Amino acid sequence: MARGADVIIIGGGIIGVACAYALTRAGVRRVVLVERGELGREASRAAAGMLAPQAEAESLGPFLDLCLAARDRYRTLEGELRDATGEDIEYCNWGLLYLVDPAEHEAARGRARWQREAGLRVEEISGQALRSLEPLLNPEIGGALLFPDEAHVRPCAVVRALTAGARERGAQVFEKVEAVDFIIGEDRLRGVRAGGETILADSIVACAGPWTGRLLDLVGHGLPTEPVRGQIVRARFDRPPLTHLVWGPRGYLVPRLNGELLIGATVERAGFDATPTLGGVAGLCEAARAMAPGLMAAPFDKAWAGLRPRLPDGLPAIGRFADIPNLYVATGHYRNGILLGPLTGELIADLVVGKEPPLSMEPFSPDRFAR
């Protein structure tokens, strides 16, 4: 027998559960999400949870606009999810210190200048002021840029809260159910075969991370998603050792409320192998030593890795293919999946219900690779 749905979502990382949450919030009644493993166990689990578009940005443009809007959305999402689900996503707007290598001083000043001209908050911090803010940082660091509006969250809590919110509004969420094929009609998709069932639907959202390209091969669209391995190391303290996110030339430091400190993250082309390596862990520890030598006495807790989906131009694919009007795609978020997840879900929901999204979607169209 066939199960019926208004929308089927394939993939249960932060993008998939955000789509489910946003669709149900937009009034879509029958939402079904299928995840071949466990919810949030791939790239979402491996993420540090930084909401740091200014630290990532090299210039103005549509992608920075998207990331800034996504960061802004978290300011209201925190309370919204707590009220709806009781889940605390640990939203911490502690700001970010972008450490400046002396050789990069002029480039950093240029970055600060164009961001200020764009209306973004950024401060130039001297070495002495930097050590007043974060005494554990290496005294040889000459200065930093302070981005006071950058923040971070706990990714697993965000996934849990979005899932709970979607289920509360009636979404059906299935783990360990793999989508193996599409049911293809003359001009649109009719549904999905998953878990030994046929699920018919009006619309389908493909958001399976780096596996999305393989999934879309089934309908003749070879979206070139590439897995990029990112390793992270975790240390434990009795209380947070830092009061800011710290971004250095070779890595970053993310303190959490419970005293955990994350050190990330490698960028490796290792295929679909998500195994941490001794080399990756050693490199991250050396990056931490360069930023804050005093941290090296902390107890080592854990190392893990995830596969982040990257597209050739570094931009996500959010939208639909012109020749399959009911197939929506949300993938390629690479290093910004946690940041962009909730907003991506809302953009997909807007498209599905026929509402004009608040941002131009043209730069992120999955059809740009077909062209």
Which features does this protein show?
371 residues, alpha/beta, FAD/NAD(P)-binding domain, D-Amino Acid Oxidase, Chain A, domain 2, 8-stranded mixed beta sheet, 11 helices
Q: How many structural domains are formed by the residues?
A: 2
**Secondary-structure element sequence?**
EHEHEHHEHEHEEHEEEEHEEEEHEEEHH
CATH C-level category of the largest domain? Alpha Beta
Do you know the CATH architecture of the largest domain? 3-Layer(bba) Sandwich
**CATH superfamily assignment of the largest domain?**
FAD/NAD(P)-binding domain
How would you characterize the overall build of this protein?
The protein is an alpha/beta fold and 371 residues long. It folds into 2 domains: 2-47 and 156-225 and 313-370, FAD/NAD(P)-binding domain; 92-151 and 226-309, D-Amino Acid Oxidase, subunit A, domain 2 (D-Amino Acid Oxidase, Chain A, domain 2). It is 32% helix and 29% strand. It has helices at residues 14-25, 43-46, 53-56, 62-85, 105-117, 127-133, 155-168, 212-217, 278-291, 337-353, 367-370; strands at 2-10, 31-35, 50-51, 96-99, 123-126, 143-147, 151-152, 172-175, 179-184, 189-194, 197-206, 226-236, 245-248, 251-255, 260-264, 300-310, 317-321, 324-331. The strands form 3 sheets. Strands 1, 2, 8, 9, 10, 11, 17 and 18 form an 8-stranded mixed beta sheet that branches. An 8-stranded mixed beta sheet has the order 5-6-4-13-14-15-12-16, with helices on both faces.
